[in-house]
Amino acid sequence: MDQDIGIFIKRLRKSKKMTLKEVSEKTDLSISFLSQVERSLCSITLHSLRKISEALGVSPSYFFPDSIQMDKNMIRRGAYKQSEHKSSFIYSDLSGNVSNPIFVPILVTLLPGDKRETPFSHEGQEFIYVTDGILTIILDNTEYDLLPGDSIHMNSTIPHNWFNKTDKPTNFIFISSTSIKV
Question: What does the pLDDT look like over 50-65, one tens digit per residue?
Answer without folding.
Answer: 889 889 888 776 776 5
